[in-house]
Structures are given as structure tokens and as C-alpha cells.
Design brief:
single chain, 227 residues, alpha/beta, seven-stranded mixed beta sheet, six-stranded mixed beta sheet
Length: 227
């Protein structure tokens, strides 16, 4: 797999036959082989996860399939758009897609294709905000842990999971819980708002000792990884 980090929660994952593009916000799309099947995912309508620019790619690459959360308005666009809600399973081309309920808006995606399993969290995260108070934060904990529990036992090759510095001391809770409750080979931090130092913060946490070597180190837009 070749993986390109675009920006924020946006990634391009290229396999032998399929290309998966997740949550485009900004950044340069790499040149893609036109003979491959291209699937564009947007987890929800927030502008840092969905931009209408993705529809322009249809002019460059024929036969793109769009898999969009059902809170995204598509204004009567073409039949290559598939809307999905939480907790659905569907087939799209050669992809098997399972969705999860976000703890914010929209969905998270678990995708099987070409013998690989890929997870993109969207905004499914353990969002803990001190200013929201204990009732909100307890509800968020329960909702997040319940949703991750729905994928326990999954063997995930590549995952994209939030690591958000705005959460201060709780910035790593979501990723930590995810990594300790799934069998994930490689995880890419995302939703970092360009604060790439959160990777170093995580590496300094004793809680990360069992999975440090599985966390990929993102430092800039356009960075590529071969896995």
C-alpha cells in the first residue's frame, strides 16, 4: 500500500487495483493511475472533512465512486454517489464497507478490499472537553467505547484515528483506547490541526508503550508512506 497524507484527516491509499481517498479538506491530490478504481469517502459534512472540490475529480478520472455520509447534500448529482448512514453494511464495486456511528457527526468507515482491512474514523473519537462538564463527558466516553466495541476482534491493516491537541491532557484517549481494543497493524494520527508535535506527546506517554512502533509519524502535507 502507498499512503499519501493530504492534510488534517485527508489521505489517499493506493492498492494494486483500488484507490481510496478519505475526507479531503485541502492539499494536493497526487497523480493517480487512471486505470484504477477510485473511491472517494467523506465521513460527514463539516468543511474540514468534505469539500465540493471532490466532484471536480470526476473530470480527470472517469468512473469515480463517491461514498458520502448521508448528512452531505449532493444536489441531485450523478448515480455514482452512494449515501451511507451509521451501522450499515454494503458492497461498492469490489469494496465491502461497514459504517459506525460517529460521536460527532456522520460515520466512520471500515473497508475490506484486496485482502486488506482499512479503518477511517472520521470524527468518531473520545471527545472529552472539560468545559462541557461531567454528564457530557461520561456520555461521550460510553458512546465511544460502545462503538469501538463493535469492531473488537477485527484485524485492521491500516487505521486513521484522531489525535487532537485541542483536547489538552485528554488528547490521546481515543487513540489509546482504539489501539488497546483492536488488532491494528499501523495507525496514522489525524485531525491534528497542523500540530504535528502531538506525535511526540504520544510517544512520551507510558500508556503508549505497547503500540508506539505501530504509530506512523506524520510531519508535513504530501508525505508518503509505503506499507
Amino acid at each position: 500500500m502507498k499512503i499519501t497524507y493530504l492534510n488534517h484527516s485527508g489521505f489517499v491509499l493506493e492498492l494494486e487495483h483500488d484507490v481510496l481517498i478519505f475526507d479531503y479538506y485541502r492539499g494536493e491530490l497526487p497523480a493517480l493511475p487512471k486505470e484504477k478504481n477510485i473511491y472517494v469517502f467523506s465521513s460527514h459534512a463539516h468543511p474540514d472533512h468534505f469539500q465540493k472540490k471532490i466532484y471536480d475529480w470526476d473530470k480527470m478520472y472517469g468512473g469515480i465512486t463517491y461514498i458520502l455520509s448521508d448528512d452531505i447534500q449532493t444536489e441531485g448529482r450523478n448515480e455514482r454517489i452512494i449515501h451511507v448512514g451509521p451501522r450499515q453494511e454494503l458492497e461498492a464495486g469490489g469494496l465491502h464497507i461497514k459504517t459506525f456511528r460517529s460521536t460527532d457527526e456522520g460515520v466512520a468507515f471500515l473497508i475490506r478490499t484486496e485482502g486488506k482491512t482499512i479503518y477511517h474514523a472520521g470524527d468518531l473519537n473520545w471527545w472529552h472537553w472539560e468545559e462541557e462538564g461531567p454528564v457530557y463527558n461520561e456520555m461521550m466516553r460510553r458512546n465511544y467505547q460502545h462503538e469501538i466495541g463493535r469492531m473488537e476482534g477485527e484485524r485492521i491493516d491500516v487505521a486513521f484515528v484522531p489525535l487532537d491537541a485541542r483536547q489538552e491532557e485528554q488528547f490521546y484517549w481515543g487513540m489509546d483506547y482504539f489501539m488497546k481494543h483492536t488488532d491494528t497493524k499501523r495507525v496514522f494520527p489525524m485531525h491534528m490541526w497542523d500540530k504535528y508535535e502531538v506525535y511526540e506527546w504520544l510517544m512520551d506517554k507510558e500508556e503508549a508503550a505497547d503500540y508506539r512502533d505501530r504509530v506512523m509519524h506524520i510531519t508535513k502535507d504530501g508525505q508518503t508512506f509505503e506499507i
